[in-house]
Fold these 2 entries.
Entry 1:
Amino acid sequence: MGSQAESPMALRRLGPIELFSSARHYMRLYLSVTVTCRYNAPTSGQGIDESLLYPALTRVVSAQPMLRVGILGEDTSKAAFCHIKTIHLANHVSFETLDGCETVDQYNEHIASQQGWHHSQPWLNIQDVPPWRIAVVKPSPAATGELSRVQEIIFSFHHALLDGNSGKLFHENLLKELNHQLGQGAANTTTTTTATLQFPDAPRLPEAQDQIIAFQNSPWYLVKTLWNELGPPMLRAKKHIPWHSKPSDFSIPYVTLTKAVDFQGPIVAKLLKACRQHGTTITGLFHALAAASLASRLPAGEASSFAASTPISLRPFLGPAADPEFKQSLRVLVTSQEHQFPAPLVARLRTSKDADQSIWETAQRVKGELNRKVASVPKDDINGLMKYNSDWIGYFKKKDGQPRPDSWEVSNIGVFANPPEEAGFAVSRVCFTNGALVTGSPLALGLGSVAGGLLSVGISWQESVVGQEFIDGLAGDLTEFVTRFNETGKFVV
């Protein structure tokens, strides 16, 4: 056993939303978030190798405190971020060249398989090694056409460190540094490819979100929420349980699978225009399309109603106490909004002669709920109550065998904007997925897009909780809805 002097130094306790994720990781109920970007090289054959990546990654890690910390006491309610003085990049970076990927579809399928694998790996030795990793994947050297100039960088991370928007921000920073390194030429690479980084001084960390967002909960909200969570079951109003595939089951092996559906830039532009005309957003629309798909695939007796959730970034709501130094830092700043799709609405999606009208009305409904939520933040937000839970591990243990709260989640990390310079690498695809939610939605849709380019919808689910055939059907429906809309202006014939 090491001496006290050799133990990592605690920096600050995890905040409530961070403890929420650390408990889930400890219990193997949710392991990571993953954001994968496709990097297009300026010329065919220009690859991202160690000599280019390591100096660029060093600058990103050096600038981002949350990439330089571990977690102490994850099995307790007093978990803390800790100072890690030495980071070996080889512990965080891998390179892979694929064989047999001759088409973009085959390449995408392999990337989806890799993405699921990363979601399924627990973080080890997190008191000594920061829990994040990147994998650089490229097609076979024999690949031609579009594939001859692309590489994927899969960035996976513990959710207590960062949120989905931070995953996109990481890639934006890495792209900038890769292009900076590219501009340096070969002259400096011999002295800048250090694989071991030293950080002798403890970093200042971004504040926990409850310290810098002034959550205010009315007495009514406080009492109602705590009663619904903690009140005697016989005295609580009976909750209607929406379709949720299967109850939470901690005995099922934690294996996340992912599948992505891509939509080309011109089609995305047409969807955006239509969303504006109908008073909704891409997020609202994909909630509605998911509802329409599931309504068509599940019988009314099995799925009379649905429920869903939307994570919402809290970055725009930082209060005056927030340190401006951390405004663009990678961190966790997130809340969520629930959506109910009651039986009459779902019945209309199943039987309506004007299915398109029902889809747009559903998308508008979601957008209205999100608008009201955003307008009310930071009042009556569940994050303001999380501090009252002193035992998240105990909280989650009670979820085993219980119905899941909702049917799906749609999370949108927004638009990736490439820098204006023409030279250098550019990102052409953003695929974002959550790990399988053992105590949450049985399936999740992650939206990520590139300005003027692809919109990628990453679907993730837990193996054996939702079947592959069911997911393939959902993915096929989304493709068919959007393709038909592009051709005819209608989602459904």
Note: Residues 1-5, 186-192 have pLDDT under 50 and may be disordered.
Entry 2:
Amino acid sequence: MKAYFINKYQKQPATLGEEPTPTINENQVLIEVKAAGLNHLDLRIKSGEFKLLVRNTFPLILGHDLSGVVRAVGSKVTQYKVGDEVMARPRDGHIGAFAEQIAVYEADVAPKPKNITMEEAAGVPLVALTAWQALVEKANVQKGQKVFIHAGSGGVGTIAIQLAKHLGAYVATTTSADNIAFVKDLGADEVIDYRKEDFSEKLTGYDVVLNSLDEATLLKSTKILKAGGHLISISGPPTKAYAKEAKLGWLLQQVMHFISRKVRKVCAQKQLQYDFLFMRANGAQLTQISQLIESGNLCPVTDKVFPFDQIAEAFDYMSKGRAKGKVVVSF
């Protein structure tokens, strides 16, 4: 089958070539991939940035979210049958969405929403699970709270704005002037043009911040949170608490405790809670997200769809940082 893979961690583009068709175990389903979403995480995995956090074997087929059709099921699979249309974020250590077929654990799969296309569905799992695990699971956002989301026109931002509004929050975000109307249409109540305005000087009294940018922006975000507020970062630095949760070794726990010391110190001084989020696969949560899409409470945003054989061009386009929503490849 055609696949986009690496044989070692590398900065240069991966290889578009042939790999063996996967086999499934008793708890997996074999999915014929119809479309797959591109994520910056793929580039970070490819370069080896997370090699201490996630153990991968080579050759490694990249790709963290997909939509497709079930073609075979393991003997213990009960929720899906051949022919079902599904979407999934395969668990760490078992990624591989950039291929014509993939074996995915049943627990990582969700029904594809009936009211969107395969291409739209392919861009949902990773960004929507990130938003869900940040805003619902970690922050427990409540009606009337104030939530600030960095980079509102990006993949995570477009879903996080909608989810925060669905939860009843007042939502602020950052974007460029060209995208102000776009993020307001998604539900943002207040929008900061990051090229002309400093969010830390305009916003105050926030309950939750979702950060996806650098550490300088992360530290500046503490200024807008009220005492008891919650700072969540998907871009780091990771913490010792995360390392324990991920069952990483003692040495890595100490390393993460050290590299997160600055943000933890600032948060302690300001009586804030800091969490690092490395999103994980969760089919049950993804099923709830699928239901919200079918009910019209969430609408995935797809910027551009490329043919699979143009995946290198698709990554080049995504890397320029101008996409509104997700970039997807279609098979």
Note: The radius of gyration is 19 Å.
